[in-house]
Amino acid sequence: MAKNYSTIIENDTSASSISSVPALSIFSEIGASLDEQSPLLTNSTFDSSICSSTNGDSVYFEEPSATIASAAINLSNTILGTGMLAMPAALACVGLIPGMALILYAGITSGLGLYFLARCAGKVGGRNASFSSLSKLTWPKLGIFFDMAISIKCFGVAVSYLIILGDLMPQVVRSFFHHAEEIELLMDRRFWITLSIVTAVGPLSYLRKLDSLKYTSLIALIAVAYLVIIVLYHYISPNFPPPPPESIEYFHFSTKIFSQLPVFIFAFTCHQNIFSVHNELQDNSEKSIIKVIFSSIGSAAFIYELVAVLGYLSFGKDVLGNIILMYPQSHFVAYGRLAIVILVIFSYPLQAHPCRASIDKIMDHFHQKQPLQLQQVQDVVVINPAKRHLLVTTCIVVASYLVAITISQLDLVLSFVGSTGSTTISFILPGLFYLKLFKQDGWDWKRCVALFLIIYGFMVMSVCLTFNIKRLL
Description:
This protein is mainly alpha-helical. Helix content is 64%, strand content 3%. It has helices at 23-30, 68-79, 83-94, 96-121, 131-138, 143-176, 189-205, 214-236, 256-266, 274-280, 286-315, 331-367, 386-406, 411-437, 445-472; strands spanning 48-52, 58-62, 381-383. A hairpin with a 5-residue loop joins strand 1 and strand 2 (58-62). The longest helix has 37 residues, at 331-367.
C-alpha cells in the first residue's frame, strides 16, 4: 500500500539553502520553514517538493508512484529491443534444440542478476539505490569505473537505435509511396534521425522518472506484438512454403556458438534500470520486485522463443540476421518495419535514463560532493538538480545524434561494448555486490549462485572479446 508523504520544505519556495553537512545540521540551515522537533514525514500528501541547494539549483523529491504493472512494462520494453530480430539467425547457428535451451538459460541467469541487484538495493536504505551507491558500500574506489561501464554501454545501445531508425525509415516510406525514391530528402537516413530527435526521441529523454515512460513503453510492446503476428502469419500461411527438411537442423555444434552467445545473453540485459524500478515502486518489497522480474523476463523469454523458433522454421539455416528483411515487400510487412521504428524511438529514453544517472554519479565523484545527504530520507525519490538534468540529457542526445549521422556500421563496436558493459552489469556486478553485502549468510545457495555468476561473467567476457578481436585480425 502506498504511503503518504509531507513536503520536505513547506510551500514557501524561498526557504533558505541547505548545507552539505551531515543530516542533523540540515535543519539548522533551513530556518523557520521547518521545526527540528516536528516529524520529517507526516500524513499529508504531496506530488513534489523543491528545496534550494547551495549553488542555487533545485532538487526535486517525488512520491514513489510506480505500480508492479508499469514497472514490468518498462523493464520488458528495455529487454525487448532489436535483439529479437536476430534471434532466428542465432538459433540457426546452434540448432533448434540447443537454441531454445540457450534462450531459457540466458533468461534465468539474467533474472538471477536482477534479483541479486534488487536485494542489494535494499541495503542502501531509502530510495536512492544505484550502482554507485552499492559500490560505496562494497568497493568505493571502483565505483567510478562501474558507472563508466554502464554509461558507455547505454550510450552505445542508444546510438544503435538511432542507426536502425535511419536505415529503416527510407524502406518504410518506399513501401507506402511509389515515387518516394525521387525525393532525395525522404531517402536520406540523416533526415529521419534528425526528425526523430526533434519530435520524439529528444523530448522523451528529458522525462525525469522512468515511470513516466510507462505509456510509451506500452506502445512499444504493442509494436513487438505486431512483429510476432508477422512471424506467426508467414509461418502458418500456405502462401509461404517451408524450407526443405535438410535446411532445418535440430542440433548443430560448431565454434559459431561463441560468436552467437552474446545475442542470447545481451538480449535480456535490462539491469541498468532495475534500480529505478526499486526506487520508484510504491511497494518495493522483495515480493513485489520478484513479480516485476518474473513478469518481464518471462514474457521476454516467451516472445524470444516464439520469434526464434517460427522464424527459423520459416527460412531454415539461410535466415538473415534481421528477420524482418526476409519477408516479401507488402503493406503488412511495411507496417512491421514501422513498428520497429516505433519500438526503437520509445526504447531510446530507456537507455538515456540510466546513462544520465551514471554520468551524474561520475560528476559527483569529481566534485567530491554528496547530493545534500538526503539519502537519509526514507521513501522519497531524490531527483537530480534541474540544471544538471537538462545539461547532461542534452549532451547525451546531441552526442548520440552526431555519432548516429556520422557512422552507419557500429556492429563491431557494439560487440565490444556489449561484451564488456553488458556482461559486467548483468553478471559480474550483481554477484560481487551480493557476495559482499550478504557475507553474514555464509555460503548458502544464493551466495554460491552469486559466485557462479561472477565466474560465468568473466568467462563470457573473455570468450566474446577473443572472438571479436579475431574479427579485426
